[in-house]
Design goal:
heterodimer, A: 261 residues, B: 257 residues, alpha/beta, six-stranded mixed beta sheet, four-stranded antiparallel beta sheet, binds adenosine-5'-triphosphate, binds magnesium ion
């Protein structure tokens, strides 16, 4: 029993310490992003590496999720002859929740892992040391562009996923459930408010920060050689997944209970 | 110029630098010799502030470096060039961009000027037309030389060389030695050269310091080191398998009978 308590204590301790380290890196990144000199092209290069490559897979996933949701709902709603409400539910669920979260998880897997591996191998081959030896701050040089790239790109990707996901719902509603084209869009736009879209996009900004900070933190703290880089990559993905879901829950709480949106 | 006093550094239970003292005068070239793993690279990294010593003092140009924060250290680092043992080239950049790194990062020069300076620095280390290549396409010795060119481009007052002539053929090594001597004679660069190559140490150094068990056990002119009668130094510079150094370590290695 005592052992158990000690273990819980140790785990809490290391969790708090880890979150503390992330917070420190996050605040350094914010400060350095706001101090000159600004090298905007570096962030754009990162954004370019993130965006187009993730677009295909995130929109594919959103499209199918839109279809699946419409189908699953039809299963119940048809019995109540309420299938006319499916466009509403699909579009709201997608924009508020599913498109942002799924996009973030995909990007965490694709880009977060890549960031951890890239920076991790720079750490073990002393390239990060070399940066510091040349009086270049590795956080400014490596973390800030990836951070800005993700914070910029993730909302864009999520917005595209919103649209494509709703088209997924459209395919089922119009071709399978025989809701008319006009009716579908009428229902979608009557349900969707600006705040649904905005809350979804606000989430993605946080998710983008999580992916960048967790990936960079793992990369900068790699110990050992290739094996260490591998471990850092896996850990980065697992931890971003968990933090994304936890943050999602927290933000949804705040939006729902405190801001009533 | 560089004054190191009572420096200690341990990794866990392993004591690497154990009360180390070393001083390098302005314009001097100091060679550091010592067995693999005694902490030569650790010392260089401590001087540039990449590792924090456990205790002791590192005074560079009259500035106590151990008290500096990262930002303060950056000001010192502008004057110090370090050639890493493994090269540490940025592998996502071409050789040209690597060499131009400091120029691109800190100076606003036009592209032609940068290209000329890069070509000049590469020529100093005996490389030509390698700018478009990627570091992964270079041999070990070429990487080392590009890394040296990258440092030359920043025109530092102090250069720390971590084994500049290892992995390099004898002819190129002689050219590198010559370059170190030229930098010393013409530009009055202060240097620390970590090397396993005794000939190179004799040629380039004003003085040679020998590391043993975390300390400097001898520091003197090349001639003095060459003629030293100290058994540890004798064994090292003449490269004998048997002697006091290996007897010490046989406790760890075990004897082959
Ligand atoms: N980051 C580190 N973490 C733990 N131990 C380290 C670290 N860096 C160096 N060491 C240890 O410190 C000791 C000295 O290492 P260092 O790299 O300075 O050796 P060296 O004298 O440069 O050897 P070589 O001539 O082979 O380059 C080694 O035993 C090494 O295991
Ligand atoms: Mg070394």
């Amino acid at each position: 029993m005592l052992n158990f308590v000690i273990k819980i204590g140790a785990a809490t301790n290391s969790l708090v310490r880890y979150l503390g380290q992330l917070t420190i890196l996050w605040s350094q990144t914010i400060v350095l992003a706001l101090t000159p000199s600004f090298k905007g092209t570096r962030s754009l290069i990162q954004a370019h590496r993130i965006g187009p490559g993730s677009f295909v897979i995130s929109s594919l996933v959103a499209f199918f999720v839109g279809m699946i949701m419409a189908l699953q709902m039809a299963y119940q709603m048809v019995q109540l002859s309420a299938e006319i409400y499916i466009p509403k539910v699909v579009s709201v669920a997608l924009t508020r929740e599913l498109a942002p979260v799924l996009t973030a998880l995909i990007v965490a897997g694709r880009i977060g892992a890549g960031i951890a591996a890239e920076i991790g191998s720079m750490t073990v081959t002393e390239q990060v040391d070399a940066l510091r030896a040349f009086a270049v701050n590795p956080v400014k040089y490596l973390v800030v562009p990836r951070f800005l790239g993700l914070v910029l790109m993730l909302p864009v990707l999520a917005m595209l996923a919103d649209v494509i996901g709703i088209w997924g719902g459209y395919v089922i509603c119009v071709y399978k459930l025989h809701i008319s084209h006009q009716m579908f869009w009428k229902m979608v736009f009557s349900a969707l408010a600006m705040k649904d879209i905005v809350t979804g996009l606000v989430k993605t900004i946080f998710f983008g920060m999580i992916i960048a900070i967790v990936g960079c933190h793992q990369g900068l703290n790699v110990r050992g050689g290739a094996e260490g880089v591998g471990k850092a990559t896996t850990t980065a993905v697992v931890r971003s997944f968990i933090l994304i879901i936890m943050t999602d829950c927290m933000i949804t709480f705040i939006f729902y209970f405190l801001l009533n949106v | 110029m560089i004054e190191i006093r009572n420096l200690y550094k341990a990794f866990g239970a392993q004591m690497v630098l154990n009360n180390l003292n070393l001083s390098v005068r302005r314009g001097e070239t100091k060679a550091i010799i010592g067995r693999s793993g005694v902490g030569k690279s650790v010392l260089l990294k401590s001087i540039v502030g990449l590792m924090k010593p456990d205790s002791g003092s590192i005074n560079i140009n009259g500035v106590e470096a151990t008290n500096l924060n990262e930002k303060g250290y950056d000001r010192l680092r502008m004057e110090i060039g370090m050639v890493f043992q493994g090269g540490a080239l940025f592998d996502s950049m071409s050789v040209g961009d690597n060499v131009a790194f400091v120029l691109n990062e800190f100076l606003n020069l036009d592209q032609k000027n940068v290209r000329d300076r890069v070509a000049h620095a590469l020529a100093l280390v005996g490389l030509k037309d390698v700018e478009p290549m990627m570091p992964s396409q270079l041999s070990g010795g070429m990487k080392k030389r590009v890394s040296l060119a990258r440092v030359l481009c920043m025109e530092p007052q102090i250069i720390l060389y971590d084994e500049p002539t290892s992995e390099i053929d004898p002819i190129t090594a002689a050219a590198i030695n010559h370059l170190i001597i030229e930098l010393h004679d013409k530009l009055k660069v202060t240097s620390i050269v970590v090397t396993h190559d005794m000939n190179s140490a004799y040629q380039v150094a004003d003085s040679i310091a020998m590391f043993y068990r975390g300390q400097v056990i001898a520091d003197g002119k090349p001639q003095e080191i060459k003629n030293s009668t100290h058994p540890v130094i004798r064994q090292f510079i003449t490269g004998q398998a048997q002697g006091p150094i290996t007897e010490d370590e046989s406790l760890i290695f075990g004897h082959v009978k």
